[in-house]
Design a protein that fits this description.
With 370 residues, the protein is α/β, with parallel strands linked by helices. It is built from eight helices and twelve strands. The strands form four sheets. Strands 1, 2, 3, 4, 5 and 10 form a six-stranded parallel sheet that branches. α3 packs parallel to α5. The longest helix is centred in the first third of the chain and has 21 residues.
């Protein structure tokens, strides 16, 4: 797959800028017992969002999977399939009525971005599905991964009626999906030691059970959100294993993905992806950075599942002029030949003949080049 000319020029600085932005954002927040979390936004109980058509809990099939098709060269050509293309993996932090740091987004900003994605033909998948190459997206549509770091209270909470609290990330996702039935209501939440600001086990269990039953992924973002580059390998493993043990206690399957705090890679790099501590092992299929460009296809030969790129959700101002979500979504719209386009067939990889050499055929899936 041809790498866009602009990418090499920004790779060297974008992750640094995102890390600095995150640190600056943290410096203006009030002191709290957990990183990245501002004061919990109060929210009154709300009515259930508009009903969303979705199957029962994700066992054995994930929520909202589209019916599959059998791709052929003629069909792939007709829908302009390109499963060697770029995939936007969007990174969100707090969703607040009033932004306090550059990484924050308001519910209105989140809603607007998701509405635009739905209208343009994007279909959400989880980070777990993406890293595994298990991409179920209708033919001619584009996968997008919605990711939320830190397990902040603004991401999810249940009201007195057992529904997502109004204007939390999940409530907004469900709302947009109800208006756009093809927009799967799924996302990935990478959490620390107090998922969604909840401190008692019963509340934590209820929260993660609701999310898992509705197709959302809850996975590992380390115990205390440290800069892993500053820790010895044993401490890196401890940070990761503590969250794995917590999630197991809450009834969540072992994580297959994790997001690096601040996008900071430990030394050695492989310590983020696999390791053990105190008799407990971890082995992730995908480790995600903090920015700042679309990801290569998980089928691409150059895809590095130990350092998967994401895009910060933000407008085109200041540091975000060329590497946040508004810029990149507009860029992908203007360069459709660079974007991942699904063939609708999860058992086959379809792409133009000229890109055949970019694909890793070892994945065991049939390749259709047209």
């Amino acid at each position: 797959m041809r790498t866009p000319a602009i990418l090499p020029r920004i790779i060297g600085i974008t992750n640094i800028v995102v890390v600095v932005a995150a640190l600056v954002g943290l410096s203006v927040l009030p002191d709290e017992p957990r990183p990245h979390a501002g004061a919990t936004e109060s929210a009154a109980p709300v009515k259930s969002p508009a009903p969303v058509k979705s199957p029962p809990p994700p066992s054995p099939s994930p929520v909202g999977l589209p019916p599959g098709v059998v791709s052929t060269p003629d069909f792939a050509r007709q829908v302009r399939a390109n499963e060697a293309g770029l995939v936007p993996i969007l990174m969100y932090h707090r969703i607040l009525a009033k932004r306090r740091a550059s990484l924050d987004r308001t519910p209105a900003q989140l809603r607007k971005e998701l509405e635009k994605l739905a209208e343009q033909g994007y279909v959400p998948i989880t980070a777990r599905e993406f890293a595994a190459g298990d991409i179920h997206v209708p033919a001619g549509k584009f996968p997008v991964v919605l990711t939320f770091d830190d397990g902040h209270p603004s991401h999810f909470g249940l009201d007195s009626g057992g529904n997502p609290v109004k204007d939390t990330a999940v409530a907004v996702i469900q709302e947009v999906a109800a208006k756009h039935p093809g927009f799967r209501p799924v996302a990935t939440f990478w959490v620390n030691r107090e998922p969604f600001g909840l401190r008692d086990q019963g509340s934590q269990e209820s929260a993660v059970r609701w999310l898992a039953d509705h197709g959302y992924e809850v996975a590992n973002h380390t115990w205390t959100h440290p800069n892993l580059r500053m820790l010895k390998r044993k401490k890196v493993a401890e940070q990761i294993v503590r969250v794995e043990r917590l999630l197991k206690k809450l009834g969540v399957p072992p994580s297959t993905t994790m997001a690096l705090p601040y996008g900071s890679m430990p030394r050695p790099k492989k310590a983020a992806r696999t390791g053990s501590w105190d008799g407990t092992r971890y082995d992730f299929s995908g480790v995600f950075l903090a920015g700042a460009e679309p990801s290569l296809s998980p089928y691409a030969k150059k895809f590095d599942r130990g350092a998967i790129q994401r895009i910060q959700s933000n407008g085109k101002k200041g540091e975000c002029r060329k590497w946040c979500s508004q810029y990149w979504l507009e860029w992908l719209d203007k360069h459709p030949g660079e974007r991942y386009v699904s063939d609708g067939d999860p058992e086959r990889i379809s792409l133009p003949e000229k890109l055949r050499g970019n694909i890793d055929a070892k994945r065991g899936l049939q390749v259709i080049a047209y």
